[in-house]
User: What shape does this take?
Amino acid sequence: MSSALPSVPSNLLDAVNQSLFLHINAAPSTSAGMIHLAQLIATAPLFLLPLAMLWLWCRGDAGRRSALLRALCVMAASLALAQTIGLLWPTPRPFALGLGHAWLAHAANASFPSDHMTLFAGAAISLLCDGIYLPGAAIALTGVLVGLARVYLGIHFPLDLLGGCAVAAIGNTLVWIAWNQWGGRCTAAAQELYRRWLAPLIRRGWIRA
Assistant: This one.
C-alpha cells in the first residue's frame, strides 16, 4: 500500500479524472476481504478470457469461429496500439504521482490506456459487431468489473479505462477492413490446424469438428 499527497491537476480533464479516481480508490479503512476480492477480480479474468474463447471455438460452427478469430486479431491489434501510445505518450500511474492508495503491486509503467480494458473491450466489441451477443456482453461486463477493480486498487485512472475502449474501437475498425479480404483464408487455415492437432478429441466427440 502506498499513499501521499495528491498532485496538482494541470487541467480540467485531469482534475475530473483524479477526482473520480479518489472517489473509487479503496481507503485505508477498507476491509482485507474487500481488498482480496478486488485483487482477484482485477487479475484472474484476464487468464480466463483465452480459455473461454478456446471453449467457444471448440463448441462453435464455422461462422462463430470466424468471429472468434477476428476478435483475437482485434485484441492483438488493439494491444499493439495501446503499447505504442504508452511508449510515445507515457502517463504516470496514480501511485507514481503520489495519488491515493495502491493495493496491488504493479510496475510504474504507462497508465494510459489500460491494457486490460483494451483486451476485454477489443474482444467484446468485435464479438458484438459479429452478432455474438451473449458472449460479447459477458466479456464486456467482465471487462468493466476488471477495470473498476483496478481503479479501486489504485493502479489505474478512470480515463485509462475509457482510453482502452477507444483504442479497442480503433483496432476493431482496422481489423474489420483487412478481414473482408483475408478473414476467410485465415479462418480456414486455423480450422485446418485445429482439426489436425485435436483430431483424437474430435473423433471421440469431445469437441466439435
